[in-house]
Amino acid sequence: xxxxxxxxxxxxxxxxxxxxxxxxxxxxxxxxxxxxxxxxxxxxxxxxxxxxxxxxxxxxxxxxxxx
Amino acid sequence: xxxxxxxxxxxxxxxxxxxxxxxxxxxxxxxxxxxxxxxxxxxxxxxxxxxxxxxxxxxxxxxxxxxxxxxxxxxxxxxxxxxxxxxxxxxxxxxxxxxxxxxxxxxxxxxxxxxxxxxxxxxxxxxxxxxxxxxxxxxxxxxxxxxxxxxxxxxxxxxxxxxxxxxxxxxxxxxxxxxxxxxxxxxxxxxxxxxxxxxxxxxxxxxxxxxxxxxxxxxxxxxxxxxxxxxxxxxxxxxxxxxxxxxxxxxxxxxxxxxxxxxxxxxxxxxxxxxxxxxxxxxxxxxxxxxxxxxxxxxxxxxxxxxxxxxxxxxxxxxxxxxxxxxxxxxxxxxxxxxxxxxxxxxxxxxxxxxxxxxxxxxxxxxxxxxxxxxx
Lengths: 67, 376
Prior knowledge:
Chain A has one domain: Up-down Bundle (F1FO ATP Synthase). Chain A is built from two helices and no strands. By secondary structure, chain A is mainly alpha-helical. The two termini of chain A are 24 Å apart. Chain A is elongated, with a radius of gyration of 16 Å. In chain A, helix 1 runs antiparallel to helix 2. Chain B has two domains: 11-154, no CATH class; 158-372, no CATH class. In chain B, the strands form three sheets. A three-stranded antiparallel β-sheet of chain B has the order 4-3-8, with no helix packed on it. A three-stranded antiparallel β-sheet of chain B has the order 5-6-7, with no helix packed on it. In chain B, 59% of the residues lie in helices and 10% in strands. Chain B has nine helices and eight strands. In chain B, 28% of the residues are buried. Chains A and B meet through helix 2 of A and helix 8 and helix 9 of B.
């Protein structure tokens, strides 16, 4: 017997999407740093901002699922 | 007006300030402490020993929510002042008058009005108790139907807000004073600990986004950065000085985002407004683009508020859920898995506490930078 709400599935889907997004950002940032180690700090800042935007979408989904 | 000499204390005096601050809340509860424990043991015996199912969701949400009392350990809680605005004027009493009751069973009578507490919200009590002995009416969805007075109470979050203000003032007036006294010399003491952080906000957040106009916005960026960071860290302390989930409270983050919103729009120059109302596109695109840009003004701060709120709340719920697993499976062996995991998440949360403060500040700087940027 399965109990729970359909919102949990939505939250899970959002987590998959955000996971793929942040994975892509992280891998690209790492490639960038490997090519140009001297730009590491700039790449890191840009990476964090981009990750925050992706993460925000996932967290919106969590909030919607909670409400 | 220079009042900084008032705060010109050494660390020992800092401790005195904290003690006084906490003492303010400790005075009344000591009177109630004994009575409190008596009541709760009574209640525990009175309830039938039926195995109540542990509700993980309720447990987690109760712990991230604001509260009228501050839990210390075991049965001991500090009741915080309750301030209600009713038609008969202001009504004040201590939250420990409810004796830890949260199901509308204990009625507090003040100024001819009767109040009950349900899930840390104060309601007017019903005239008669229902079949469960509760002085509150519930509708079909389980929501309380009773009317609520306007609640201006000093809740746990308000206490933490005041505490963090004291903490920030104490730390930063000392740091600022250090720069005043030893002008041009190397930093000393707590000053050397904060200098790299202040430099980080200036060199990595303000200057890249705001250019040569950075100095005007430094006070706001520094304040918001350290306010969020300190409160994130205070929220991670599980016992008394911390324990409140201040930055995980939507009202606080909305206020912070509103300040950013006002700063962006009051400092927006003509290029900023031109970009919104008459962008460089064919005129028939305005039908789509102008509404989108106008919505964009509001979605930016909303996203800012929800990002901080959801990040901190999600982190707290995660830790609570992992600890709660022990009670869901009702076995001590689960703790061998869940406690290391919770510890790991705590480590991540320390990082997130910093990153979220950084993200909020850098995005504020970015939005302000876009509004004040010169035309090129």
